[in-house]
Specification:
Helix content: 55-70%
Strand content: under 5%
Structural class: mainly alpha
Order of helices and strands: HHHEHHEH
Number of helices: 6
Largest sheet: 2 strands, parallel
Shape: globular
């Protein structure tokens, strides 16, 4: 359990650094390692791509086919974001010695938590995912405070919202640090939770099953 774990401040700094890069998310820089940091970055990239597609999907003056393409892209980015979140959990739990490494990537990872440790309902990976989304919200709201085509009321309201978003992100970051510290100390643990997103799986989505039956 000697592996260095990422801190919330480091994750937040990476999220903001990537968002400040005009080439992001199209050009993906090499991650700082092939462990958790790689998947923190993959998660963030897919959240950024997902965010952009969600904006495009709200258009009202384009062809229905364009919106359908947006929706299909959203499904793909959402699945990739989820997969990266689970990978973050796997690697953090292995670094903490809280999951059997041989089972970590299976559908039924085996926890190896100490006696008396409390189970945290939210995983560290899901908190990293939420920090990524918070980074996008902060970035977008900050842009609103810099607009020159809106009135003073819009700018003032955006500044208030930005401050609240930054506080929310700081609170979430502190909770992540506390969870990882408690997990390292044997006071808490979390699990790898498979989301089993059925809508992307032709074997489980009833609409896709019905389509296949008709063929």
């Amino acid at each position: 359990m000697s592996a260095k774990l990422p801190s919330a401040a480091e994750i937040i700094a990476l999220h903001d650094l990537l968002l400040a890069d005009s080439a992001w998310p199209g050009a993906e820089p090499a991650p700082r390692d092939d462990g958790p940091w790689r998947w923190v970055q993959v998660n963030h990239r897919n959240n950024c791509l997902l965010w952009a597609e969600e904006d495009l999907a709200r258009r009202t003056r384009v062809a229905d086919a364009d919106i359908a393409a947006n929706k299909r892209a959203i499904d793909g980015y959402n699945q990739a974001r989820n997969d990266a979140t689970e990978r973050v959990d796997e690697l953090l739990l292995m670094a903490l010695g809280l999951v059997d490494a041989a089972s970590a990537r299976t559908d039924a990872p085996v926890s190896t938590m100490p006696a008396g440790a409390r189970l945290n309902s939210e995983t560290a990976g899901s908190m990293v995912d939420r920090l990524s989304i918070m980074a996008l919200k902060v970035h977008a709201m900050r842009a609103q405070t810099l607009r020159t085509d809106v009135d003073a009321e819009h700018l003032a309201g955006s500044r208030v919202k930005l401050a609240r978003l930054e506080q929310q992100r700081a609170d979430l970051g502190r909770c992540l640090d506390e969870l990882l510290a408690d997990a390292r100390a044997g006071r808490a643990y979390f699990k790898v939770y498979r989301q089993f997103k059925m809508y992307n799986d032709a074997r489980f989505n009833p609409a896709l099953v019905a389509e296949a039956a008709k063929q």
